[in-house]
Design brief:
Number of helices: 14
Radius of gyration: 24 Å
Structural class: mainly alpha
Shape: elongated
Length: 343
């Protein structure tokens, strides 16, 4: 069993290196040529901007000129790119708080966050000191200095063996970094954080490993289009352990909302078919409580946000409950057209 785990880990490591073979350190040497400086500038844009294309008109002309003239180091150039309005417009202003923090770790330190405490600390810096100070906290850290120094462009290093490295940090990076062709500008799931459950629960992908063979077989045989729909949701998704802070509960609510919205998106292709097949029948929709007056705690903005998100979660669950029967009817109708293989 141990040998099998070691082989799996080695294959995952080699697969990551093959998929990201271009992820090599780029260093600005002494007395560089103009071409060498160009290579460094392109590497900084690619790393800090999450492999997203930067148009000529969006480039930072003044910082580039300072780097070419030797007036600033690579580290300072990285700082100016990360603190620019270009970076802020793509990865801060249009992202959820913890999604933005995930990307800051990825872009500036070359790894994924390993715990909720790390993310919470940066959230507190954002609240108390602002965006620029938070970027400084990454670049001025001892970790950045030890890993990259003044003249090495940050690179993805979360898959490498390091002191204090955890398996959670490794799987979190794999979740953030899909392939060489992926771009962080093409954000999915409504810009929702991807690692919330993983860092709060301290488990890879936020899920317990499936050990029951029957559950594994049932999950594999479930129709793909409806697999995420029939996963049982907790009765009250907003409730977590009592010792969990309200901020952590809000973060879990955000992830739950993104998951519910994705379930609705999975159901929509089947709805029109189901509605056409049930036309003429009376469909009893679940009670809509969205317009009910909500109890709001005026003493705490976080509590008000918590109550609003809990109401949204309840509304999305009701929409899913109403959509499931129609989707199931449509899926059964379409089942006879699906390919089957017999042995």
């Amino acid at each position: 069993m141990i040998a099998d785990s070691a082989v799996a880990a080695q294959q995952a490591y080699l697969g990551f290196n093959n998929a990201h073979s271009g992820n090599m350190p780029v260093e600005l040497t002494a007395n560089p040529s103009p071409d060498e400086v160009d290579v460094v500038i392109r590497a900084v844009y690619r790393q800090v901007m999450g492999n997203a294309y930067v148009m000529e008109s969006e480039r930072l002309v003044s910082p580039e000129s300072q780097l070419r003239q030797g007036n600033i180091s690579v580290r300072e150039f990285v700082r100016q790119v990360a603190q620019s309005e270009l970076y802020r417009s793509r990865f801060v202003d249009n992202c959820y708080r913890y999604r933005s923090i995930e990307l800051n770790f990825k872009h500036l330190l070359g790894r994924a966050p390993q715990s909720f405490d790390e993310m919470k600390a940066h959230s507190q810096v954002l609240d108390s000191q602002g965006f620029r100070a938070d970027i400084d906290s990454y670049i001025d850290s001892d970790e950045y200095q030890d890993a990259f120094g003044e003249f090495i462009v940050p690179f993805y290093r979360g898959h490498q063996t390091q002191a204090g490295q955890t398996m959670l940090g490794y799987t979190n990076l794999l979740q953030l970094l899909r392939s060489d062709s992926s771009s962080d500008k093409a954000l999915s799931a409504d810009n929702a954080p991807q690692l919330t459950k993983a860092v709060i629960r301290g488990l890879p992908y936020g899920k317990d490993k499936i050990v029951d063979v029957q559950s594994l077989i049932a999950d594999a045989l479930r129709p793909k289009a409806l697999r995420s729909v029939y996963q049982r949701q907790p009765d009250r998704p907003s409730q977590v352990e009592p010792e969990t802070s309200l901020e952590a509960q809000l973060t879990e609510q955000t992830a739950t909302i993104a998951q519910l919205r994705q379930q609705l998106a999975d159901l929509r292709p089947f709805l029109s078919i189901g509605e056409s097949m049930t036309r003429g029948f009376v469909v009893i929709a679940p009670e809509n409580t969205a317009n009910r007056p909500q109890r709001v705690d005026e003493t705490s903005p976080l509590q008000r946000q918590f109550n609003e998100q809990a109401t949204l979660i309840e509304k999305l669950q009701q929409e899913i409950t109403a959509a499931r029967p129609l989707a199931a009817i449509a899926n059964a109708k379409l089942n006879k057209w699906r390919q089957r293989y017999f042995r």
